[in-house]
Amino acid sequence: MDYIISIIPQMLLGTVDTLRLFFVTIVLSIPLGVVLALGRVSSFKTLRTCISGYVCLLRGTPLMLQLLFVYYGLPFIPVIGIRLDDFPAAIFAFVLNYAAYFCEIFRAGIQSIPKGQYEAAQTLGMNYVQTMRRIVLPQVLKVILPPVSNETITLVKDTSLIYVLAMNDLLRTTRNLVQRDFNIMPFVVAGVFYLIMTMVLTYMFDKLEKKFSVYD
Amino acid sequence: MKKIDARNIIKNFGNLEVLKGIDLEVNEGEVVAVIGPSGSGKSTLLRCLNKLEIINQGTIIIDGETLVDTDAKGEPKYASGEAATKIICKMGMVFQQFNLFPHMTVLENLIEAPVNVQKRDVAEVTKEAEILLEKVGLSDKRDVYPRKLSGGQQQRVAIARALAMKPDIMLFDEPTSSLDPELTGEVLKTMRNLAEDRMTMVVVTHEMGFAREVATKVMFMADGIVQEQGCPEELFTNPKNERLQAFLQKVLH
Ligand SMILES: Nc1ncnc2c1ncn2[C@@H]1O[C@H](COP(=O)(O)OP(=O)(O)O)[C@@H](O)[C@H]1O
Ligand SMILES: [Mg+2]
Question: Which residues pair with B221 in a beta bridge?
Fold first, then answer.
């Protein structure tokens, strides 16, 4: 027990790095996903094709590979070749990857709204922005809540991939402790930490889903 | 006073000619019933009137204001965005599938567009909406979500929602076709009351009883052409067009 208490401060420090990556990724990738989804359902064919290509590429290759490519590969690309620090590199890869997933979730959500809803709005004189904001998006929100919840929980666990960039996130901190102390207890504690984070998220999304189920 | 003056409406979907030069004139207070076999272009005609479909050629004048006209080159020219919206708001539309907004209560459905499109005062619009709900017999449902209502109730809410915009004209596209038979009566009664209040109406319907008793004029469409039109008495008892005779044979017997 004493041992567990003694390692908790270090593990909390690692958790801060994990949470930082989590929040920044969510805050940036969701709006980007919305913009991509709107482009994906727009009437511009070239735009639609470009976005589906992007989505295909980022969903079709491992996030780990994308992470390594951004960190180690980008500097070698002519002209734009820039070297990013580990945290910005991680953010960059995570946001691009998660925006692709969110784009697909939002696209499916937008396309699940029947044509009749747009037509009713149009006959009531609503313009595009009013129709989207007042009629379509509130209904989309309800449809996408479960898959967004899933994706968000996956992100908590995916953050552990950044240990390959030698960042001291929760997982790397844990591994260091295990190797230093020849004790597997840190693994258990890390498991509990991840579990708490995902359970808090699950609880919040459940609340949201209940709020949106009033009109069923 | 002509409320709807549509001339030579031509509408194609790709190679499919759906409307082949339709004329439709509706005077103030008239109730025009549009009948005809399915696929004859009845819905498309209604949808052209409020710009849910873009016509290929023709002229549509609503309450004296031009929604679309055809220039010398044969290209349709629509009124600009804001002007078109104003014209479209003169017409209320009732769909076969109701198309209520499921995430809003009955009252919210009614006041949404008057408040956010017409920018009218919420309190005033709410008061009017409550009167409309009373008219369609749904006062007790004002805070209920549409999914909790029967089809007939939903359609009556849809009618009230359209009326909340204070339209001059009401368009109905088979308003009772997706209802159970025992629920059509309440919707038809609401429409009858509207007609008695001298609302100008265009009603696409398979309810021949309604067309016969309520309409001032009946229009029979087939193959994208108005085959015959006239007062209901004449048209139902003494049809001249062969296709109309065959159609009436089928639906009345
Ligand atoms: N959006 C569309 N795209 C292609 N064809 C359509 C479209 N809407 C209607 N049609 C076709 O136009 C014809 C007339 O349809 P419609 O106006 O719905 O007939 P009605 O209401 O008299 O049954 C049908 O053949 C239908 O398949
Ligand atoms: Mg139809």
Answer: B226
When CB atoms are compared, the residue of A123, A135, A216 closest to B88 is: A123
Domains, chain A = 2-213 (1.10.3720.10)
Q: What is the ipTM of this complex?
A: 0.94
Angstrom distance (rounded) from CA A136 to CA A113: 7
Mean predicted lDDT score pLDDT of chain A: 93
Angle ∠(B70,B74,B76) on CA atoms, nearest 5 = 40
Q: Report the C-alpha gap between B169 and B46 in whole angstroms.
A: 12
Taking the C-alpha atoms of residue A62 and residue A58, their distance in angstroms, rounded to an integer, is 8
- d(Cα A109, Cα A139) in Å, to the nearest integer? 8
Distance B219 CA to ligand 2 centre (A): 15
Write out residues in chain B with pLDDT < 50, as ranges: none
Closest to B145 (Cβ–Cβ): which among A124, A138, A214? A214
Cβ–Cβ gap B112/A139 under 8 Å: no
Q: Which of A118, A123, A131 to mutate to test the interface with B (most CBs of B within 10 A)?
A: A123
Return the pLDDT at B67.
97
Task: List all residues of chain A from 82 to 121 with a beta carbon under 8 Å from chain B.
Answer: 114, 116-117, 119-120
